[in-house]
Amino acid sequence: MARRAAPPNAGPELFSAPARRAIHDPNESAFSRFMREQIWSPEKLPGNISIVTGVGVFAAGVFVARTWGELLVPA
Questions:
Q1: Per-residue pLDDT tens for 46-60?
Q2: 3-33 as b/e, with b when 16 or more CB fall inside 10 Å?
Q3: How much is the pTM?
Q4: Whole-angstrom Cα distance, residue 41 to residue 47?
Q5: Are 39 and 48 in contact (CB under 8 A)?
Q6: C-alpha to C-alpha distance for 42 and 48, rounded to whole angstroms
Q7: Whole-Å CA distances, 51 to 20, 54, 58, 67
Q8: Residue 20 Cα distances to 17, 23, 42, angstroms
Q9: Do residues 38 and 44 touch, judged by C-beta distance below 8 A?
């Protein structure tokens, strides 16, 4: 099988996602625009996941302390 050569001075072929078009819907509510731009945006997803993880760990700690907190105190 013959190998195709890349043109001279060509860099590595990397996947590039198609450019995202801006959505301009005049009937979109402010809440929908906030959810689209701040919550579901791929650029902000890692930060949002870390916030959700922190809130989840905090809530789990409160639940554990309220459920089994008396076991932590010596009798």
A1: 999 999 999 999 999
A2: eeeeeeeeeeeeeeeeeeeeeeeeeeeeeee
A3: 0.58
A4: 11
A5: yes
A6: 10
A7: 25, 5, 11, 24
A8: 8, 9, 11
A9: yes
